[in-house]
Amino acid sequence: MSTTYRLSCDCGNATLTAHGEPEVSLYCHCGSCRALYGTVMLAGTAWRDDKVELPEAEHIIDYKMSDRDMRRFVCKTCGVTVYGRHKPGMPVIPHSLFRKANGGELPAELAPTLHLFYRDRVLDVADDLPKSDGGELMGM
Ligand SMILES: [Zn+2]
Ligand SMILES: [Zn+2]
Questions:
Q1: Beta strands in 20-94 (DSSP E)
Q2: What residues does the CENP-V/GFA domain cover (predicted)?
Q3: How many whole angstroms from 37 Cα to the centroid of ligand 2?
């Protein structure tokens, strides 16, 4: 069985499709993710390039951070971040897009399995998931 996720930004101009399973669904607390996404942690999924169809270039802004090699792809019309690219290079799609496409709930099969860079956190999280001080759990 293969699942297909049809995702979009808020206004619907930037659309993505993801097939099957992500490589990982996680929370990342590193300073780079916090800066790139403007949140206290990244809640997202990382996908192999051959499993996703990304938005057409005409609908998005490709923003590279000024001081590091991290990119954020944003809808030109509504400003919602539809994916990012950073270590290890795979497209990272925020959980929020899957929630939007699924009546507000994260699909159960996409539940995050770990925390990365927990030592860098600005918010404690009281759950039972494994917490990696750095990137060890992802081999980083
Ligand atoms: Zn939009
Ligand atoms: Zn991170």
A1: 24-28, 42-46, 52-53, 60-64, 71-75, 81-85, 91-94
A2: 5-119
A3: 10
Spatial neighbors of 125 by CB under 8 A, at least 6 apart, are 27, 41, 115
How many other CB atoms are found less than 10 A from the CB of residue 34?
19
pLDDT digit string, tens, across residues 76-115: 999 999 999 987 789 999 999 999 999 999 999 999 999 9
Neighbours of 16 (CB within 10 A): 22
In the reported structure, the alpha carbon of residue 134 is separated from the centroid of ligand 1 by a whole-number distance in angstroms of 33
Question: CA-CA-CA-CA torsion for 22, 42, 94, 65, nearest 10 degrees?
Answer: -110
The domains located in the chain, with CATH, are 4-123 (2.170.150.70)
Ligand (nearest to CA of 138): 2
Distance from the alpha carbon of residue 12 to the mean position of ligand 1, in angstroms: 5
Confidence band of 138 (pLDDT split at 50, 70, 90): confident
